[in-house]
Specification:
By secondary structure, this protein is mainly beta. It has four domains: 100 residues, Thrombin, subunit H (Beta Barrel), CATH 2.40.10; 105 residues; 80 residues; 57 residues. The chain is built from five helices and 21 strands. Strands 1, 2, 3, 4, 5, 6, 7, 13, 14, 18, 19, 20 and 21 form a 13-stranded mixed sheet that branches. A three-stranded mixed sheet has the order 9-12-11. The protein has a three-stranded mixed sheet with strand order 16-15-17, with helices on one face. Helix 3 runs antiparallel to helix 4. It is globular and about 65 Å long. The chain starts with a strand and ends with a strand.
Length: 366
Amino acid sequence: MWETWIHNTRSGSPEFMLKSGRPLASARWTRVLGSKGSGSHTVLLRDAGIPKSMVGEITRGNKYTIVQRWSEDNHVAYAGVIRNRKFLASGSALVLSSNELREAVLGTRYPYGVNEYNPSTGVLNIVARSRTAALRAVLLAATKSGSVSGWELPIDIPADAAGPFNASWRHEEKLTTEDLLTQIEADGVETDFRPYIDSAGYLRYQAICQVRISSGTPFLLPTQAPRSIVLGLTVEEDYVGQRTGLLGFGKGRGQDTPFKFAPTTGDGIGDLPVMDSDEAFPDISDLTRLQTATNVLFAAKNKPTEQWDYSLYIGEVGAAMAAPGAIHDLHVFGSEFISDGSHPQRVISLSGDLSNVVKPGVQFYG
């Protein structure tokens, strides 16, 4: 069953549990691969037995994070920094709106203090490192290695390693930590800050950087078997965004704007009419990284989007099997449209409330 906790954002320390029913009346949350999800929790204050001073403190925005976790194994399905609170006097209800850590904190934080800004010499250089090491360097800068009060965040910093990634990010560009993370991702990887509860009960985040983030053994999910936990399956194919060629434009102006195109070899047309377009990468000036970013985006746009949509009843299996990164091996037989056999899907988002039914957002995993 679900538990909802309040944790300190900077340290991850557990502060208070909101009991379902009263004071916690309802919740809607979405955890997104890449850590840009959001949530809303409604707390009923009348007869809740919580002192007003405590309510005022533990629901303070930015200082505290609200965490939705499965009690049987402490799996964290959602962790969102409180960003807004609204009191509804008629029902004595407090609505807490939240966003995941990247959206709420790293999205606006510079990788340097405002008192350190130096447009002439301020720079973060990444030389011949792996994309994971680039993520490490960005996080070390954005948290000051946890050595300065106020900058610390409970993030597990990944390891250093050599690789092909090079970048030079100057203060004068006014790039936020989010901008730097986006550039790393444009080089052909995904990043995520996966929340978890450590052995001391503290909230922490595992910083992950992989070409395609996945975790664990695929879960076999028969779609038509008696008592299947798969509910309301639909399959949709969208051809609107399909492209046969792509121009990628980097940082620059007019005729001096660097550009690359994809595909560089072969034919992206096949038996389709030509449908080319362009995409701007305004923070990328390195030509190698610009070509990679163009290639990665074209690979995603060259095929139609096939979207599988379903919900899961997790009352007997728990929430971890539906976490972003999990693989669902959906088996279909006897459908008038879907081909028989296995259709593996990777979870990229998960939405839920306080019930035992959750809704994963998935992509084909092939």
